[in-house]
């Protein structure tokens, strides 16, 4: 009888194992091949490459030190890294067997002196654990890229805020220099007034211009305090802590053409890599849904003991058990497979959207970078020298009573405007460069700074 039972179990098991169709077998083989060692992310050692990329992004100089400090201390970066480490740990649990079951029982009636114990373990179909582990690995890859994206966001914000602080600091210095120029104009006007070559109105006009520059200086100093608080927030330190800004910043830039930046972004931008990992994760989940058609086996050992009764001896028995689930509710299985296919299609569409938006962002930011660079060169090579020359001529002409004070003030105002515009173009170029690095996912510059101020 026992032989017939074993034979029946073997036949039923074979019939259910046959539910794994040839197509499903090919799916497993294709997936295993696609996710082979040559393309498999090494999640156990993924922290080192990620941290290395962030070090490259930070760069050197005062700005690089601030970026490094922000990446170490910013709570958003720490939270994203924690989620990544948690996802890495989940890979192990998803690839492991479920806990075994241990049971113990004893008959409570006095006339029935029996007790029993049992142990059972569910063993999934071999590919299931592998595929579950692969799905968890891809989720860890997604979490890693989310961590990288958060770090890149913080690094970009630190760089753009730092350059804005540089602008404000230099604008304050330029405005103070302009105050000296205006004071000199007032002295000239007062001297001309004494010899009858100017009027009191000339002095008053120059004084009004001086007062306006004083008000501009107050606004700039207020902007500094506000921007400095934002900067310290990014570094997760007291809002009033001092900030070191170099007198001069030289960036060694390496900005290729947009086509090359596109190729770099496809390989390095975290959002694109995260979208690719999401597709691979949905691939694994689809295969796992198909594998649910294959039954899982449960094996166990049961022990029973009949305690000694008057006139009888103690008897024990050990029984080996074998069982499996019956995946017979086909509508449920089909619905799960349909869900997995729909989610995979959605992941592919999301990846296409991310790629399209990324390429558009690169093109737009690159154009703004080039525009700022051209404006910077125009002010430095042409407009500023001409404005400085015009101010000197106006001052000489006013001393000789050949031009009025309005011409002199207009020349002074034009020079101030051009100096600030040149500074704005320089800072815009650096900020657009930081945004371009974020759009591509890699560093495109190296800082060399000198003459630090606080």
Please describe what this structure looks like:
Helix 5 (75-94) packs antiparallel against helix 6. 30% of the residues are buried. The model is unreliable at 1-20 and 35-48 (pLDDT under 50). Strands 1-2-4-5 form a 4-stranded antiparallel β-sheet, with no helix packed on it. A two-stranded antiparallel ribbon has the order 3-6. The protein has a single domain, classed as Outer membrane efflux proteins (OEP) (Up-down Bundle). It has 11 helices and 6 strands. The protein is α+β, with helices and mostly antiparallel strands and 454 residues long. The chain has helices at residues 2-17, 22-34, 47-58, 61-73, 75-94, 126-194, 200-235, 258-268, 270-291, 330-399, 405-440, and strands at residues 101-106, 114-123, 245-253, 297-306, 315-324, 445-453. It starts with a helix and ends with a strand.
Short description:
By secondary structure, this protein is α+β, with helices and mostly antiparallel strands. It contains 11 helices and 6 strands.
**What is the correct CATH architecture?**
Up-down Bundle
Largest sheet: 4 strands, antiparallel
Outline type: elongated
Number of helices: 11
Distance between the termini: 93 Å
Mean pLDDT: 83
Helix content: over 70%
Please provide the ordered H/E string of secondary-structure elements: HHHHHEEHHEHHEEHHE
Structural class: alpha+beta
Strand runs, count: 6
CATH topology: Outer membrane efflux proteins (OEP)
**The CATH homologous superfamily:** Outer membrane efflux proteins (OEP)
Number of domain units: 1
Pick out its properties.
454 residues, alpha+beta, four-stranded antiparallel beta sheet, two-stranded antiparallel ribbon, elongated
């Amino acid at each position: 009888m026992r032989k017939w039972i074993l034979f029946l179990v073997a036949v039923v098991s074979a019939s259910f194992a046959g539910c794994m169709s040839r197509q499903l077998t090919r799916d497993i083989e294709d997936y295993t091949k696609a996710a082979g060692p040559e393309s498999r992310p090494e999640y156990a050692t993924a922290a080192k490459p990620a941290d290395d990329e962030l070090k490259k992004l930070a760069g050197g100089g005062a700005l690089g030190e601030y970026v490094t400090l922000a990446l170490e201390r910013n709570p958003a970066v720490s939270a994203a890294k924690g989620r990544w480490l948690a996802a890495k740990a989940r890979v192990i649990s998803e690839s492991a067997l479920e806990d075994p079951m241990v049971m113990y029982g004893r008959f409570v009636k006095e006339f029935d002196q029996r007790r029993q114990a049992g142990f059972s373990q569910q063993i999934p179909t071999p590919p299931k654990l592998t595929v579950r582990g692969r799905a968890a690995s891809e989720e860890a890859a997604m979490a890693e890229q989310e961590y990288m994206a958060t770090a890149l966001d913080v690094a970009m914000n630190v760089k753009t805020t730092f350059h804005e602080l540089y602008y404000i600091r230099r604008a304050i210095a330029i405005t103070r220099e302009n105050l000296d120029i205006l004071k000199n104009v007032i002295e000239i006007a007062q001297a001309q007034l004494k010899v009858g070559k100017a009027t009191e109105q000339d002095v008053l006009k120059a004084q009004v211009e001086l007062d306006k520059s004083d008000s501009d200086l107050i606004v700039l100093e207020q902007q500094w305090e506000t921007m400095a608080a934002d900067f310290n927030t990014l570094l997760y330190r007291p809002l009033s802590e001092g900030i070191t800004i170099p007198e001069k910043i030289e960036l060694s830039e390496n900005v290729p053409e947009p086509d090359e930046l596109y190729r770099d972004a496809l390989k390095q931008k975290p959002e694109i890599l995260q979208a690719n990992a999401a597709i691979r994760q949905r691939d694994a989940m689809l295969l796992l849904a198909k594998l649910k058609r294959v039954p899982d086996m449960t094996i166990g050992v049961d022990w029973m003991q009949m305690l000694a009764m008057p006139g009888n001896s103690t008897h024990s028995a050990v029984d080996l058990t074998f069982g499996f689930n019956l995946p017979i509710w086909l509508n449920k299985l089909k619905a799960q497979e349909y869900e997995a296919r729909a989610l995979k299609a959605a992941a592919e569409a999301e990846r296409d959207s991310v790629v399209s938006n990324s390429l558009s962002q690169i093109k737009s930011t690159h154009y703004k970078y080039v525009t700022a660079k051209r404006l910077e060169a125009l002010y430095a090579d042409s407009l500023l020298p001409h404005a400085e020359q015009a101010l000197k001529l106006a001052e000489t002409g006013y001393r000789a009573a050949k031009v009025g004070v309005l011409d002199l003030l207009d020349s002074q105002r034009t020079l101030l405007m051009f100096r600030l515009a040149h500074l704005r173009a320089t800072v815009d170029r650096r900020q657009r460069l930081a945004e371009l690095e974020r759009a591509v996912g890699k560093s495109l510059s190296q800082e060399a700074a000198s003459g630090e101020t606080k």
